[in-house]
Amino acid sequence: MTRNWIGRLLAISLFTMPFVAGAQTADDAAMMGDAAMSGPLSPTAMKAMIWTDKLGYSTDEQMKVYLTLDPMGDTNAYTCFVYRENIETGERQYLPLTAGAVLTDDVVDSAGQTVDNAMAVAVSAMDQTRIWTGSVPAPGLWQWVGELRNADATQVVKKIYGKFVVSQQPNVELGFDGTDTEISTDTTWTNDTIYRIRHQVFVNSGATLTIEAGTLIQASGQNAVIVVEKGGKIMAEGSREAPIVMTCDAAVGQRESGCWAGLIVLGNAPMTRGTGLAEGVIPETRPAYGGDDPMDSSGVLRYVRVEFAGVDFNPETQPNAFGFHGVGAGTVIDHIQAHEAEDDGIEFFGGNADCMYCVSSGSKDDSLDWAFGWQGTAQYVFIQQDSLSDNGIEADNDSLGFDRTPRSHPKLYNVTMVGGLAQDENSSSVDGMRIRVGTAITARNVLLTGFGGDAIDVRDNSPSLFLDGTSSIKNAIIHDNGDNTGDAQIAGGVASSVEYMDVAPALVNVRFEANPDPRPMLGSPALVIGNAATPPGAGSLDTSAQFIGAFGDENWLEEWTFFGDEFDYDVEEATE
C-alpha cells in the first residue's frame, strides 16, 4: 500500500460549494452533463453522518457502514449519491439505498437511478441505519462519501465522509508491557501502519519523530502519552484530506474523554518561573521545560487532531489534550483540533508559540487555557463548549506573582466562541473568557455567544490592565450570554474598556453534532464592512480576515475536523 493517507471516521459537511470543473473526476462530469452552473445554493443545517464501524481494517475483515440523516426542517428536494472511493485513484463504486442493493460501477443515485433519470426528492430521516455490510476492499486508502446535490445534480450542497484504511501491515504496539518507549534517533511513523500506545512515549533531545500525513494513532490508559522533550522535535504534517489522528483505542461510538493522556510538547522558550515541570508524566522530575530561546522550535503540527485525551489523575495533575510548555515561536502549530478532552483542550504554559486555525470542542473543563507568560498569537480560533463544562477561555499569568515576567499577553484575532447555551437551554457551561491572575490580552474580531455565565469575567489584578490600556478587546460581537444583555454580560468593572456590539450574530448552525457551520449568514453584522478590524501584517497573520469571528465565507472546518457526541456513533441499539 502506498504510504500517503489513512482514513478516519469523519462526519463533517461541505456547504454551499459550487462544483469546480477543474476538480471533477470522470464520474463528476457524468453527473453534471452539459448543465450550466447556477449560483451558490443556500447552506443547509441538516444533520448528516456516514461512518464505518472501525477506523482501520486488516484484509480479512468485514466492514459495516452506517448513515444518519435528519432534515432538521429542510424540505428542499435534493439528488443524493452514496459511493465508496479509493482516495488515491479516484475509483468509485456507487451504493443505492434500496433493499438488497449492491455496489456498482455505474453512476447511480441513492434510488438506483442513472443521472438522466434521477429525481430529486426531500430527504427522509434515517437514524444510525446500517447501509452496507461486506468484505473490505483491497489494501489502500478509502472513503465512503455521501453527497446532497441540487435538483439537477450540478452542485454539491452537502458532503459527508467516512474515511478508512485497509492495511496488510501489522500494528505497531508501544508500551503494552508497561515500559516507556524512548525515541533517541530520528524515527518515522508511516501511514500504512496503525500505532497503538499503552504507556509513555518520549521523543528525546536531539531526536525527531516524523509522522506521515494520515497516520492513525490509537491510545488507551492514564500513562498513554506522547512527550516531546526539550531539544526533541515532532514533525507531524497532515493535510486536509489526511489529518493525523491521535485518538482513543476503543470501538467507534464507545470512546470517552480521558481515554488516554494526550500530547505534551516541552520547549526552551521563556516562562515566568524560568523552568517548570509538565503535569501527567512519570517520574514527575522528567518533563522539564522553559529556557531563554523565544524562537525555539519543537517542530511542526499541521492538521493534527487529538481526541478523547486528558486523563484526570487528580485535581492538581490533569494533562490536557494539547499541552504546549515553553514552546517557542519557531514551532509551527497550524490546523489543530482538541476534541472531547477530559480537562482542557489546548493549553499554553509560557512560551511564544503561535497557533493558526485552532479548534477546541467538547472539552470537559476549559477549551483554551494559558498561564506562566504565554506571549504568542492565535488567529482563526473556534471554540465549541460542552454544555456541562467550565470556561471557553481561562487565562492566567502566575499565581506566585501576578506581575511576574514575561507577563502572559497573547494576541487573538478572529475568534468564534460558542457556549453550551447555544445547544442546550439547561447548559451549565460557565464564562466565555475568564481573564485573571495578572494576564493581559489583546483581542480583535471576537464573536462570543451562548455561555451560561458571563461573556467576559476579569478578576484579580487583571482589570487594572484594561483600565491602563495594556489589555483590550475590540471589534467584538457579544450576545446572549448568561441570560443577560449589554454590559451585564461583562464582569470585573471593565465593560467601558471593551468595544463590542450586542447583536445576534446570525450563524448558520452551531449545534453540538457532526456538522456545525459557524459561518455568519448573509446580512450578519459580523460581515458588515467596517465592523471588524484589519489584522496587522505581522508574522503569519492573515490581513484579509476583515470580519468578526473565525469564519467568513469559508467553513475551514470541513473534512479534517471531527465533531459530535460519541453517542451519535454508538450503534448498539441502532436500526440495522
How would you explain this protein's 3D organization?
The protein is mostly beta strands. It folds into three domains: 151 residues, Immunoglobulin-like (Sandwich); 209 residues; 154 residues, no CATH class. The chain is 2% helix and 37% strand. A hairpin with a 5-residue loop joins strand 9 and strand 10. The chain is globular. The protein starts with 16 loop residues before the first strand and ends in a 56-residue tail after the last strand.
Q: What is the structure about, briefly put?
A:
With 576 residues, this protein is an all-beta fold.
Beta strands, count: 40
The percent range for strand residues is 35-45%
Which radius of gyration do the C-alpha atoms yield? 24 Å
The shape, in one word, is globular
Distance between the termini: 32 Å
Structural class: mainly beta
Oligomer: single chain
Helical region count?
A: 2
Give unreliable regions as ranges: 1-41
Largest sheet features: 15 strands, parallel
Mean pLDDT: 89
Q: What is the total number of structural domains?
A: 3
* Proportion of residues in helical segments: under 10%
